[in-house]
Amino acid sequence: MLSRVANSLYWMVRYIERADNLARLIEVNEQLVLDLGKIDRETLAALWRPVIASTGDEELFDEAHPDGQQSEAIHFLTVDRENPNSIASCVALARENARMVRDQLAEALWEELNGLYLFVNSDEGAWKLANDAAGYYEQIRRATHSFHGIAAATTLRGEAWDFMDLGRHLERADKTTRFLDITTFLERRIDEFGLTVDEHWLAILRSCGGLGAFRMKYRAKFKPRNIAEFLILSSDFPRSVRFCVDRVDQSLHAISGTPRGGFSDDAEIKSGQLLSALAYASIDDVLDGGLHVYLDSLQTRLNDIGEEIFRTYVLLPEQIEDRPPIPANTVSAVVRWQMEQQQQ
Amino acid sequence: MFDRYTTDSFYDEMFEADGSLRGQCGDLFERFSQFEPEEFEARRNACDAHFLKQGVTFNVYHDNRGSERIFPFDPVPRVIPANEWEHLEAGLSQRIIALNLFLHDVYHEQQILKDGVIPRYYVEQAKHYRPEFRGVDVPKDIYIHICGSDLIRGDDGTYYVLEDNGRCPSGASYLLENRNALKRAFPALFDSMGVRSVDSYPRELRDMLEFISPHREGDAVCVLLTPGCYNSAYFEHCYLAREMGIEIVEGNDLVVIDDFVYMRTTKGLVRVDVIYRRIDDDFIDPTVFRKDSVLGVPGIMRAYRAGNVALANAVGTGVADDKATYYFVPKMIEYYLGQEPILPNVPTYLAHEDSDRKYILDHLPELVVKSANESGGYGMLMGPTASREEIAKFRDKIIDDPRNFIAQPVVSLSRCPTWCDGSFEGRHVDLRPYIVYGNQVKIVPGGLTRVALNKGSLVVNSSQGGGSKDTWVLKD
To answer: Which residues form the Circularly permuted ATP-grasp type domain (chain B) (predicted)?
Structure first.
């Protein structure tokens, strides 16, 4: 498989996963806010801070909206194309990556993604967001799930699949840590908001789509400690960090052909190390040094794995180190003009 | 639905001059006459929605948001009876064979120039002539592997060749997608009328690529080289690559080592044998042509000269579709094949010839003037509809650089019924068949019929308000 194609498939799925997570997070937060009854504008705005913080785009938001109100926060997270991580931007980037490798995708897969893109950019989409926000986010989630479903049903289990799986689980693990980290922020101001501890931990669980699974496993003992354990260390919940890293490790070994347990490149070393750290950790280890610090280190390690994947498979052999691929969203006017050359 | 239809004394693809139906269109007329306008409109919208959903689009340049559009599609097909198609096939085959012999000749002995059949000047001054490729042998001596010749019909129904697109002809994907759309919209008609299938195109293209491979016969690694995702034809590039089951690559994906071309894959470098390139000569190798090209592959021309990689189309084919060269194609057919041309050219004046130039300058308001190397409807003067200023501007341009201009009388292109705001009206059409030259000449039975959607317009280019139709070639 072409290195550029691998890279595009990987990012296509990461962006889809990101849009899905964001849709769920916004939806859950909207519900949470509704439960609080009458609250003033400032508190309302403050309740959206942790969500924006979790996407890592706080600075951008503050610049554009110094007086960031709830409606602005929702707009920024959902449809603002100036925000590179809004749902609309993620969908557009996923589609742009898909367009570049369209020849590699099942027709139905492309159509699903293209349909989502058309919906997000349509009047129908705008109307729905304004009049039936829950329905809007639900439609986004359904489309991304349908995307994953079609991919699972139509993609050859080869390299293309492995790179897509890699993108999906790396992004998913990263988002789970970021959602959990929202609790760090909320706990500091919990009284101010009039939230109970249970409520906001439950919201996190719901954002990760893990409410049902948690009930089965912990019999509704919604203690923060249990929820953190479930979302970080559980070996069988598909959005837990450990589960995702296990899949990342599996995909990396499938791509290189190296048996698991061993390694043939730096990406495999890093994923293997992280996986064993998670497999042998207890929730006490995690909480001892503070949850935030632990989550921070997880994010760094996940990023490192992502970088090693790029170095190993995209930058590849020595001949091409001096000619890095042109990322689609940063092409210069000159490149664009050249690409637009005449066709007869 | 056809009650108010008039042919307005143009040659019409569905009706005879006296208003009676052409034989091949019987079933089509029957079926379409039964529709209520709303129902027909609904089918058309379904076609558009299908194209949009599938992303069958072209990129619109200089438009930052929403830069993709669907190519306007008209659901009334153009029907070509079997005997007419045989005639076209014979004429187009003859033409591509002559063009390839000409290209081989001008890049080798140049006998046709020595014999004075074509003045040397026209070839050597052609913008896309590549003298640096004289003496280079290309695989199987084929230069134009894919040709998209544009045909028009005049008042009496005669087919003329308007131009030969022998560099990077595009549009074949729309031909295939238009067919898919019509099969969904009017499935029953295909059986009753006996429409020939166009499905073979990607396979024939792939077979041709395999055929010209310099090595690994039958197991060649073929790729499609695209300028990138901002190119107007990017959809087509992906579409064809997928249909052929080959990789689509950008310049950066390829690297030349020791005069062999490789693609960069996750498993290391893989040698490439054949490149279907959809990137112009100018950009293909920054070490030989444009130095500032970031799209090309440094060193690819060395590999090409060494015979280690095949390119379709070959380098330097632009000299054959220069509009001044076009003038000489009938002479080439006589010279190389000793045959009468089956398909005539549109009468053409060469501004570089004194007497022709005088005629052109005296008759500008009646003529169509074209620059020798533009396409897409750019660089053109439509005399009868041009303003005085435009005519004056072209007069200066012609006097400045006569080599670069030809002129033709206005041919009133044939018309075809077209769905316009709730009823059928006649609109002018041309036809682009796709000719593939590998082991033998293959022409997919059909083609892209382009239609000038604006009332009275003769310009069919998508960049100038044109749309397209499906083309039905009938079985005997």
So the answer is: 77-452
